[in-house]
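Re: beginner question about structure tokens

> Can someone show what the tokenized structure looks like for a real chain? I only ever see the sequence side.

Sure, here's an example I had lying around. Input first:
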Amino acid sequence: MKEIERAIEANYPKDMMYKLKERKARCLLAKKSLNEALKAFQEDVQALDDSKLPQEKRMKLERDAQIMIKMLTKNMEMEAKMRKSQKLPPVEPSRAVKNKPKEIVERFVSDTLTFDSTEDEGRFAKAAKDIKLGTYLVQEKPHVACLLQMYSQTHCQFCFKRVVLPIACNYCADIIFCSNKCRDDSWNTYHRIECGIMQHLWNSGASITCQMALRVIAQKSLKYFLDIKKELEELKTNPSYERLDQLPNDDYRRVFVLVTHEKDRTFEDIFHRNVMASFLINCLKLGGFFEGDDSEDR
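And the corresponding structure tokens:
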């Protein structure tokens, strides 16, 4: 399917397009995507009008496609009648998501947990009552995630799934994707900044934590950080956790207020972090993060 879609996007010859449409329809049929298969067979019939096949051959292929269209239409009508006659009861949502907004799919904290904090331990969770085996406690989409270098040529850089038919970045050969969507989504978030500098980052010996720190910044624009700069200064001394918890998962202010234990760190540790911060800033410069802005505020 992916190869067929890429061939169509690459302006496959119009007189040969019927072949792609017919193969696409068969693939969708095998996947039991009946609605999409029906549409693909209909497109196949239209594409045959542009073919250079002999009339007899074209008519045979058109008859075959029309037979599939009639069969699919009939099967879909029968399935619709069966579903209507069964009148299945609605599925009862689980306690965790019942009467919750749609965002619960990305963020959920069980009511068996309570949260507290101390000066020595920072913020932490503790059980409010006995927790049964198999209970979901926390579910949340991560603010940032990075793929280890060892998986950069076997797994998708964006969704982390193992790749069967790799799709390369349009501008570098450091990483791969599983689909055009993942490639485009990655470019529209962070890869436009990371493109071309991944090898520098890996060769530096920087940990995956450093790569995550880079991506935390790269996935937002410079203007975004300048707009919230004053608020970040206020959050250093007066973090309003209740309000911040209502922000989307990808809002930088949610991670900015994480406990750092900076006062407990050694001089060597702080020096190392400053050196890496300088290195990562130069990586951002190399990736074009600061292009178009010459203000002193940055």
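Each token stands for a local structural state, so reading them left to right follows the chain. Residues 2-86 form one domain.
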